[in-house]
Amino acid sequence: MFNRSLVLSIFNIGARTYSSKLIRLNHPKRILRKLVCPIFAERSDFKIQLANMSSGDTKFVTYNEVQNLKDNKTVLLIDVREPQELKETGIIPGSINIPLSILEQTLTGTPSDEFHAQFHRDKPDLDTPLVFSCKAGIRSSKAQNIAAKLGYSNVRNYKGGWLDWEEHVKKN
C-alpha cells in the first residue's frame, strides 16, 4: 500500500506549518496512527525523517525561458510524457522525449553513442543543464528529483508544462 514515502501538501507539527514535505517512514503501516494521533510521535520505534520539498529547493523555468531554449544546444529540454501523449498533443520544439518510466535507466544505462543515435543530442554530463517538462509539471517534478538523485547538478522544471506552452502559443 505504501512505498515508504508520502508527500503531504500542508500539515502542522506543533506550532510550525510546513507547506510541502516528504515524509519517509521506517514503519509505513503506522502512518495513519502518526497522522491521526500525535502521541505516537514519542514512540522510539516510529522514526520520521523530513526532507524539505518546498519551492525554494525546486528550480522552475517559465514559458519565455523555455522558448529561448529551443535552439540552445547546451541545455537539454526533456519531455517525460509517454510517446502516445506526444502524438495526441505535440511536443515543445527543441525537446527530446524520454518517458519518466525509463528516465533513470536512460540517463544511467544508455551508452553515449546510443543516446546520440536515438536523440540526436549528446548524452548529458552531470553538469549539463537539464529542463524537464510534461503535461502540467507533476511528472517533470518527479524527473527533476530523479536527475538530482543521480547527481545532475543543474536541473529545472517547466512547471506549467505542455498546458502552459499550448496556452501561450494560442495567445500569440
From TrEMBL:
Signal peptide: none annotated. InterPro entries: Rhodanese-like_dom (IPR001763), Rhodanese-like_dom_sf (IPR036873). SUPFAM superfamilies: Rhodanese/Cell cycle control phosphatase. It comes from the Eukaryota. Residues 71-170 form the Rhodanese domain. PANTHER family: THIOSULFATE SULFURTRANSFERASE RDL2, MITOCHONDRIAL-RELATED, THIOSULFATE SULFURTRANSFERASE_RHODANESE-LIKE DOMAIN-CONTAINING PROTEIN 3. This is Rhodanese-like domain. It comes from Popillia japonica.
